[in-house]
Amino acid sequence: MKTILHSLTALLLVPLAALPAADTPKPASKPNIVFIFTDDQRFDTIAALGNPIIKTPNLDRLVRSGVSFRNHYIMGGTWGAVCMPSRNMMLTGRTLFHIAPPEEPSPAIYKGGIVPPGNITLPGQLRKQGYLTFFTGKSHNYVQSPPFFEQGGRLGPIGSILKPAPEGQPTGHFAMEFKRWGSTQVEVHPGRHSTDVFGDDAVEFIERQQGERPFFLYLAFHAPHDPIMAPPEYEAMYPAEKMQLPHSFVPNHAFETGSLNIRSFVVHREQTLAPYTPEAMRKAIGIYYAMITHLDAQVGRVLAALEAKGQLENTIIAFSSDNGFSLGDHGLNHKQSVYEHLARPATIPRARVAETGPKGNSYHFAAHLAIEQGTEPRAVSIPQLQKLLVKQGQVIRHAKR
Which residues contact 239 (CB under 8 A, 6 or more apart)? Predict the structure, then answer.
């Protein structure tokens, strides 16, 4: 079974009041929702889903306690930055060509680069249901509809993350420019990785909550987007000589596609260009894995913060990425194709992390969506996932073909 990224929105817009809540000092009437969205994380980068090299203990925990999509696709891209239409589909719950009507005169809007006015968004709908909505992380959506997030942390990058810097000075993820929610002032935290900055904002938001309202936390990491770089202690976990090349690795793509040289990814300060050598690609794979293990540690901090507030079992957690990434597959890098490694992001659409007790009811997908709560029918376009994922009362934990 194939699923499309926009369906994640529908999986969260459920009859939330009907879901059980945990016993907490100040129980919310509806479960909290934490939506973690990474950037350029391909489908085969979670240990629990079959990668024997990468270390992802916290994502593994989500896999074990939830539902995972192993055959989950984006729609490719009609926009230079594939992640923009991908993120906008997630925000609206609509497929690429239904974000805007065909008669829309602006190519930027029709191609999914902009969400035009009139679209119902995931944070907007949850806010109508009484949720406190909070956003921190990569801000790469041009949304003309009202933002619907009430609060936010640091957003970035402001400008290009690929700006050159003098040798010895922080660059890339260690020198990202941010703007705080509601502010126009740019700030930089030299030497601090963007993943840590966004993780800090998410944890601090959770720690401030007193249980008066359920919350929706949208945490959009910029990792593992290039420039591929991680803190040294994480890079040391993945020596280049121990990395496995993709089975389809070749130095060059077999034929010219017209887009092979749009942009090659950057490893630290070096641009990786074809023809690719096995040594260079093993190095890139190791650091790419290090970035994912690093962001996995931040996922662990979020889970720990929820647990400390007594809200872990009362929180639905969704995890996905905007698209995959090429690491020498078919002689390609970055995201200029629709091969499997690019079109399939890592996805755990819904989980509740609970260490004890029965698990089945906690993971049911509901396909009744926001329409039952007064949402216009055009707000969400998805198949009846509940019929596909629940058979004879048993939840399918890992959805394949």
Answer: 286
